[in-house]
Structures are given as C-alpha cells and as structure tokens.
Design brief:
- This protein has helices at about 5-45, 50-100.
- It starts with a helix and ends with a helix.
- It has 2 domains: about 1-45; about 60-100.
- It is mainly α.
- About 90% of the residues lie in helices and about 0% in strands.
- The chain is elongated.
C-alpha cells in the first residue's frame, strides 16, 4: 500500500460511517413522519365540534348554578340550626337560673 492510500483510508472509513448514519436518520425521519400523520388523523377524527363544546359549556353552567343553589340552601339551614341551638341554650340557662 502506498502512503496516499494509508492517509485516505481513515477518511474513507469516516465517509462510509457517515453515509450509514445518514441512511439510518432518513429511515427514522420517515417513520417519525408516518407516525405523526397517523396521530393527526386520529386527532381530526376525535376533535370536538363547536356545537358539542357549546352544549358542554351550557351544561357546565347549569351544574354550577345548581351547586350554588344547594350551597345557599345549606348555608341558610345551618344558620337557622345555629339559631335554634342558641335559643335552646338560652332557654336552658334561663330555666336553670330561675327554676331553682
């Protein structure tokens, strides 16, 4: 082997290795592209249309109003219950104090 071939041999090996890597990258990019297309197709099939979203918002608002109504009801009754408890305590204090 002459000196020129010895010097070019490592370069030749590097070029072959780079070519192999580039081929592998092309295959990876193609599979990535195909997977992305499939995912986009599935997203398009499962997307939410405007009417369904509007119905969802209206249902959600109705649920919120119902929750608010029930919370207000419980709040009023809890205050009323505390009032009754306070009245009974006051009546018991008066009974114990003056009934002796």
């Amino acid at each position: 082997m002459n000196d020129d071939n010895r010097e070019n041999a490592p370069d030749h090996d590097i070029i072959i290795e780079l070519r192999t890597e580039v081929k592998g990258m092309r295959a990876d990019l193609k599979s990535f592209s195909d997977d992305t297309k499939e995912r986009l197709i599935r997203v398009e099939e499962n997307k939410l249309d405007k009417q369904t979203f509007t119905d969802f918002l209206l249902d959600d608002k109705a649920r919120d109003l119902d929750k608010e109504r029930r919370i207000r009801f419980l709040e009023r009754w809890s205050w009323a219950a505390w009032g009754v408890v306070g009245f009974i305590e006051f009546a018991l204090i008066l009974y114990v104090t003056f009934h002796r």
